[in-house]
Amino acid sequence: MSDEDAAGDEGYDEWLAAIAESEGYFLACENGHGSLPPRRRCPHCGSGELDEKPLPGTGEIETFTETQVPIPSFGDDAPYVVAIAAFGDVRITGQFREIDPSEVAVGQSVRVDVSERATTGEPLVVFRPA
Amino acid sequence: MLYSTPPLSNAMVRIVGVGLTPFGTTPERTGRDMFAEASEEAFADAGVPRGDVEALYYGNFMGELAEHQGHQGPLMAEAAGIRAPATRFETACASSGAAVRSAVQTLRNGEADLLLVGGAERMTNLGTGGATEALAIAADDLYEVRAGVTFPGAYALMANAYFEAFGGSREDLAEIAVKNHENALENEYAQYQKRIDVDTVLEAPMVSAPLGLYDACPITDGASAVLLASDEYVQRNGLDAPVSITGTGQGGDNLALQDREHLARSPAADDAAAEAYDDAGIDAVDVGVAEVHDCFTIAEVLALESLGFYEPGEGIGAARRGETTATGKLPVNLSGGLKAKGHPVGATGTAQIAELAQLLRGDHVNSDAVADVDVGVAHNAGGTVASAFVHVVEVAE
Questions:
Q1: Is residue B181 a part of any domain in this protein?
Q2: Is residue B140 part of a domain?
Q3: With B109 labelled, which of A75, B55, B268, B327 sits at a CA distance of 20 to 30 A?
């Protein structure tokens, strides 16, 4: 993984940096679908008309899991809560921090941020209670 | 629907031989040796000369990570003792389901009369961490793996979404694990021939909530092979091949869960099933036995609903109600399924076809449970069902 990481991932890296600056965005097509970069086509309808739009400030948890058995590169992070949250027309997958895992529930309001993976120091998309 | 097969007079693809290695923990065995054994069994079962095989269609997912081995097609043709062109298929845990579908299409198109189809996966030499990491790359690297999504984690996200949308409980899921372990008790090819009860499942260590250790299939080494032939080849050589593949279907979906329309359903498998049923000229009600991709207990629920046996939200209680047990109205995973039989991922698709062929022709240890059944279905899924393959098999002389 590390060799490819040195080159970075154009489109994704810029998106992460924007999230970290509280200037997150998503790609909106003319048919009302949302997606995340890098993309040239909407993953829902194939439209090539994609515009960057500001990500709503808060999202809502749609599903979550507390993972006890991680992959090795998350060894020091486990246990951790992974959730999928809807921010308007787009969903984001991240780790839910700053909350007791037993308190996590579908429908909770969250904001998205970038933190660090404990195991490797790599950037990590996280949710925090809104 | 990606592809629709026109009705052809030679639409029946005959299963002339099947072979499996015992599934289990054999970290020292190479993929090539396991596939050699499975294909040896298939040739012995079929009684056809190796020289008649016109190509190998082979499924494998993690060969680069487990064995530092790419380009496995020619290697596996060699292992099987055939001199023929060979192609590897990769659709994660549905890799050999993809191989079966392409073989069916090739035979129907009249481009070949006899094909060797199979798959192999060496996994346990990676250890639990290594195998978990290797499986995770079937998910979206940027948006899922980097967030810490494991495969059990991905299915746990689907399970919680299912509970939220339709209800259901961990007890319902546990009944599926108990059923599939029960089915594997006498299957000598199964990794676990061990009876469990609901409490065992519920009290096992959690992997990714709500899925515990016994909600998950094991990490498995193994290989499978089938010999598929045209009807004309079977008749010309006077072969005994009572079971045929009569329908094939494939569906696809967005790779990442976050881009799916619904987090608690598997529309790629809906599409694959619809296409396969239409191809075979059957409906869901005609199916009497099913082998489905229960990599996790929740996955069996999603499969039953996609295959049209239950409406969305109704499949969760099927095992608890006894409807999918060996004595139920529709036995599911009589082999033990991925859960108890094991899941050497690239071998699973053809292993399902092999088990169904034996169940229907009467030489499977659990054949008595389906003595009056003529129609079976195999459901093989890749990733979180971003790839799905469904095949209809029938007793048809």
A1: no
A2: no
A3: B268
